[in-house]
Design goal:
- The chain has a single domain, classed as Glutaredoxin (3-Layer(aba) Sandwich).
- A five-stranded mixed sheet has the order 1-3-2-4-5, with helices on both faces.
- It is an alpha/beta fold.
- The chain has five helices and five strands.
- Helix 2 packs across helix 5.
- A hairpin with a 5-residue loop joins strand 4 and strand 5.
- The longest helix is centred in the middle third of the chain and has 17 residues.
Length: about 130
């Protein structure tokens, strides 16, 4: 069964992914705009993509996979060109939502994350 983890912020992301780097398990990460007090992301594309990605995790991800949902912070934090999610070599994000197979060049960005066939293909190629 896919192990699912949800974290908020860059340090929590690094802490969550670290134990799996040498495990050989496929690690998938969805970076999304953080949720407001109402429980909904400030990012409309993220709101659209989240149910598609989570459905594909259950349908297409390998049994031994790890899925990490990462809130990248509020809109002002994310929009800063020096945002750590944009500048750190481990992430190099250009947009949210971004779904990646960690440690590879495989990634889907923005509206691609809302296309079930593309998301499932990313998981199936693991």
């Amino acid at each position: 069964m896919v192990q699912k983890i949800a974290v908020e912020g860059f340090d929590a992301f690094v802490e969550a992914v670290e134990p799996f780097k040498a495990s050989g398990k496929p690690v998938f990460v969805l970076f999304s705009g953080s949720k407001t007090s109402g429980g909904v992301s400030w990012c409309p594309d993220c709101v659209t993509a989240e149910p598609v990605v989570k459905g594909a995790v259950d349908k297409a991800a390998p049994e031994d996979a790890v899925f990490i949902y990462v809130g990248v912070g509020g809109r002002d934090f994310w929009k800063d060109p020096n945002c750590v999610f944009r500048t750190d070599a481990r992430t190099k994000l250009k947009s949210v939502p971004t779904l990646m197979k960690y440690g590879t060049a495989q990634r889907l960005e923005e509206e691609q994350c809302a296309k079930a066939d593309m998301v499932e293909m990313l998981f199936e190629d693991a």
